Structures are given as C-alpha cells and as structure tokens.
Amino acid sequence: MSLFGKQERICVEAKVMGVLGGNYVSVVTALSLARGATVKTMLKALLEGGHVDETTYAAVKSLKPPLRILINGEDATGRGRRAGLAHGDTVSIFTPLAGG
Fold first, then answer.
1. Whole-number Å distance between alpha carbons of 21 and 9
2. Predicted confidence (pLDDT) per residue in 50-95, tens digit
3. What's the Cα-to-Cα distance from 29 to each of 2, 20, 78, rounded to whole Å?
4. For residues 1 and 22, what is the distance between their CA atoms, to the nearest angstrom?
5. 75 near 45, Cβ under 8 Å?
6. 79-92: b (≥16 Cβ within 10 Å) or e
7. How would you classify residue 33: left for phi > 0, otherwise alpha for psi between -120 and 50, otherwise beta?
C-alpha cells in the first residue's frame, strides 16, 4: 500500500505464443498488475481483462505444462507460474510446438 491507501501497481508486457486449441495464437499486450504479481496472476489478468477473444481465452485458460517461460529473455521455466514479476518485466510464454 502507498501512503494514500492505494495498492502499488507494476506494468509488465505479456506475450503468449504457440499452438493453442489447434490454432496458432500470438497475444502481446501491456498489463497493470498489483505489486507482488506472479506469472499466474498475469495470466489471470490477461484473461479477465478482455485482452483476448473468446477462442484465445479458452486456449490460454487450458495452458498446461510443459510451457517455456521467459522473463526478460531469461529462462524462468523452473519457477513456473509462481515466478514473481517486477515493474517493466517482459514475460514470454511459449507452448510446445510438437510432442511435449
């Protein structure tokens, strides 16, 4: 909380790319999130904020490991959806192209 009782926010760039639901999907958008946000809360904000159409919504909602997660170009796959985010981060999530 700030001095004025408002929750501090961070801004991140979210990128989700890959084959989802049989279709290639590429979503790139900026999101404002509460300080302390994780990849999981970023995905929730992406879905609930109207940033994607209905088909993409269903596909992103069904994302399951293995996923490749990069934060600022560095591999964060081991931390998964629990990875913490900071102001200015770029989060890229890729689905497997084949196999798994």
1. 32
2. 877 777 777 777 777 778 899 999 999 888 889 999 999 999 988 8
3. 26, 18, 24
4. 42
5. no
6. eebebebeeebebb
7. beta
